[in-house]
């Protein structure tokens, strides 16, 4: 069922949202992006004349009640954003009374789902790889089903709008969908947009298609890189992960970040790119620092000739120029991960230039651009370019798994 085609009048909808928002030490929300992202779905339920139950996790309490991770701290923010006084249920697993009392046009927020170990469905306090663990895991699977069934009993429609957890098979993101028929479960507007954006780059991409993959580690992005080799025309590899590729070819990388055990994989990727006719572009020169700090001495070295006491910290002018040319000739662009130590102002230039170039390709050349992953999203926001790219993904891990070619349980549960 498509959310746009459903009329919530007279229905109670339980909506899985991602309200895992950052809080300061006094429990005040410091960034409301995720709350705002859920509003189109939540407002549709209320505007149609439905009653709204919202459920989310916050942080990682691992099945224990931790007051500093209580969703009671955000009720005020959600109420203000929705324009409705939101009620609060102190116990997600025992909220029958609050759910039953909910009237048309009213909204209820359940307490942190992860106070219950059943939400994630992982046994607590048993060591992995032991016979006890296997028994506890089977028992926990049953308890997870019971917990999901309890959540489902509060409402007659289920909406999943939490893309950030779509790659997890949790009680509230996937298991719960089994208790609703196909006409009473659906993706929310945010989830629909995320799924469409990923399809635009993975299934319907216009060529030339360029992927820019940065960040610190090859290990976290290897699956993504391998899946993309069959789809892209250009693969730009920047950031800390690039040094593993340089060292694998015999380059000198000084103190730069790298993963020795992944050097054979890096060589395999390069060979596969060559075989598939993919233009793999690595940095040619790097801005290096003596220390890992903003005010350290800086110098540019060829990427494979970094002296022992220096560390690669940002892509150089020369590398950026080469990458700009590739990006501006592209019709589809996927960007995940910074190309330098973006959090230090003096080493953020390369990432900023990538952000500006992706925006330029989108605005001036009509390219489709998908930006995802915490630091890339922070970069487009920092330079005020979020509305100049085609889509900014809110779910870093979920987006990466989808691009790796994995099925997202949160999406599959609705579509089956």
TrEMBL record:
Assembly notes: Monomer.
Binding site for ATP: 221, 312, 343, 373-376
EC top class named in words: transferase
Pathway assignment: Carbohydrate degradation; glycolysis; pyruvate from D-glyceraldehyde 3-phosphate: step 2/5
Gene assigned in the entry: pgk
Main location: cytoplasm
Molecular function terms, GO-annotated: ADP binding; ATP binding; phosphoglycerate kinase activity
The protein's name in its UniProt record: Phosphoglycerate kinase
Keyword line: ATP-binding, Cytoplasm, Glycolysis, Kinase, Nucleotide-binding, Transferase
Species this protein is from: Prevotella fusca JCM 17724
Residues the entry annotates as binding substrate: 18-20, 34, 57-60, 114, 168
One BP annotation, GO: gluconeogenesis
Family the UniProt entry places it in: Belongs to the phosphoglycerate kinase family.
Catalytic activity: (2R)-3-phosphoglycerate + ATP = (2R)-3-phospho-glyceroyl phosphate + ADP
A GO CC term assigned to this protein in UniProt: cytosol
Annotated (2R)-3-phosphoglycerate binding sites: 34, 114, 168
HAMAP family on file: Phosphoglyc_kinase (MF_00145)
Localization per record: Cytoplasm
Record bears the keyword Transcription: no
Its EC number(s): 2.7.2.3
